[in-house]
Amino acid sequence: MISFFWSEVKDLGHTGLGGLYMWGQWPLPPLPQRAPSPQFSMPQYIESRRRHRTILRREDKRCWKKLVPPIFMLMLCAIGAQGQHQGHRALQWDQQAEDNPPLYRQGAPTGEATGNDAPSKPKTALNHGPAPPETDPLYLSRAQAVRESPGRDPVVVLNGLGGAGLKFRLRGAKPTRSYCRSWYARWHTAWILPRVLIPPVARCLMEFLTPVYDAEAGTFDSKPGVEVKVDGFGQIISLENLGPSMLPLRNFDYIHGFINFMMTELGYGPGLDLFAAPYDWRYSPDVLKEQGYFRDLRALVETAYVTAGKRRVHLMGHSLGGVVALAFLNEMPLEWKRRYIKSYLPVGSPFAGTVVNVMGACSGYNLGLPLAPSDLRDFEAQAPSGPWLFPQPSLWPPDEILVRTPNQSYTAHDYERLLTDLGLGEASLPVYRHVAPLYLETLVPPGIDVHVIHSQGNPTIASLVYNQSFNGSMAEIPSPPVLIYGPGDGTVPERSLMRPFFEWSPDESWRMTHHVLEGVNHMDICNFRGFFRVLTDILGNHVDRTPAPEAEALETAPDPWKTRLKSAWAPFQAAANYADEMVFGPS
């Protein structure tokens, strides 16, 4: 009997997606609906089931034979769509512009030239307000110029906090919770799949993902027995397919509109002139550097430069990715940056931290997910990227209260006292002391063109009011606070977004522009049509510029056709892996 039921389980695993597809296509012998009767002995029942499995296997093969041609045709269509002419794209854009017209640049000062002939100013502030009913001709001309240019400047994108998928596997780890010990020793997707929304599973995953700080060596690493990695370096699809499409998690669809716009409206192709550099967002830049991320990012920029025909790269980072990109640029020699980097584009980047991260360390912040914030508190307090993004004391005065309780008040100058009162003196306080000086090193002008882009006019958390005092126990997590709001983009305070514009002084060798968008928040800015308008303006201005100096000899760039074929196949592979994991669980 045991062998019989085990064969049933193996049979279910064998049929897989082919069996699921087949059940809706071909009639099969009906399964017995009741236990075998005396007239139908157990051996006969087992024999009938074996015959049924034989039919399943035969139909499974027929299923895949019928599925191969459609899959192959879809791959060809995906490849051909990247190389189509722009005729139908312009019509598609016109229809979308009527439904939701893009923003336009408000009136320029008298005597200021516009377009490609305008002299570049070292420091320019641009406000983008509501669009007129008609289509902006300057915008359409810029988009057409980018599409029709013989070569497009490549773009490399860095994700924000929580914006890259993480995988983990266990190698002898001993979880503290008993229900966390059933994970297999193979790679599992930890961030983010539907099972993360189950509270016990969320607690397990947060325990596995929480880094450990070695105070003596001054280094961070994953917990002993746990390995964590980021998949898809260089592939833009690694940022697009972050969350499950079946769930309404819009915070994890934050870059889909940007990718679609770049490919359909500007003619960019994944692996050709559009790349992604996902990183482990748990860590601060110094840890990423030690782990070799900066080395890999430099190689990716050089590869993009060669693949795009020796055209310099636009380095774009959303939210935390913009600050990580700045830390990377500050590590590179100026000669290298001016040879390979055309501009630096931080989008909604917290250059002076956010109050949201303080709330994450106090009571937890769920990142817009249907999770209990307390399940993420320990992770957010101990991961270096959390304390690293605390509001900086240089921009928050000593009399501005960030956290208030019935007995105490805390400012940006009281983080050590705050963490001690929360009971995080051993777990989080050493982490804060390690990352606190890093902002003084990262906020240095990169020496190349800078385009600061962010939104405004959204209520943003500015202060936290707790109805209970902190008793110094790490186990007792405070209840969610009452939120006091201020100006910002919905996540990052205004002073943090605008810090570069106030503190940096461009010279003749580089310029800086400041683009402010209205009517969009922090998480939706990369899917906002006003952002597309600004991006087209920036890329259009760079179309006719003088080519970069000849670079040193580099390794041969990857074959564009192989890269395109791999990018076209990636969605099918991701869908198959996701479906198998949903049906059969972690493998």
Could you characterize the architecture of this molecule?
This is Group xv phospholipase a2. Residues 99-137 are annotated as: Disordered. Pfam families: LCAT. One of its GO terms (molecular function) is O-acyltransferase activity. There is one protein chain. The protein is an alpha/beta fold. Among the domains are: 2-82, no CATH class; 166-229, no CATH class; 360-440 and 465-483, no CATH class. α2 runs antiparallel to α21 (560-584), α5 runs parallel beside α13 and α12 packs across α13 (373-382). The protein is globular and about 60 Å long. It has helices at residues 2-23, 42-82, 87-99, 137-148, 199-209, 237-240, 256-264, 285-290, 293-307, 320-331, 334-340, 355-362, 373-382, 385-388, 415-421, 429-435, 438-442, 494-497, 499-503, 529-541, 560-584, and strands at 104-105, 123-129, 155-158, 166-170, 188-191, 212-214, 219-221, 226-230, 274-276, 313-318, 341-347, 401-404, 409-411, 449-456, 460-465, 482-486, 512-518. It has an eight-stranded mixed sheet with strand order 1-2-17-14-11-10-3-9, sandwiched between helices. The two termini are 26 Å apart. The chain has 21 helices and 17 strands.
Break the fold down into its secondary structure elements and pairings.
Blueprint: H1 2-23, H2 42-82, H3 87-99, E1 104-105, E2 123-129, H4 137-148, E3 155-158, E4 166-170, E5 188-191, H5 199-209, E6 212-214, E7 219-221, E8 226-230, H6 237-240, H7 256-264, E9 274-276, H8 285-290, H9 293-307, E10 313-318, H10 320-331, H11 334-340, E11 341-347, H12 355-362, H13 373-382, H14 385-388, E12 401-404, E13 409-411, H15 415-421, H16 429-435, H17 438-442, E14 449-456, E15 460-465, E16 482-486, H18 494-497, H19 499-503, E17 512-518, H20 529-541, H21 560-584
Parallel strand pairs: 2-17, 3-9, 3-10, 10-11, 11-14, 12-15, 14-17
Antiparallel strand pairs: 1-2, 4-5, 4-8, 6-7, 12-13, 15-16
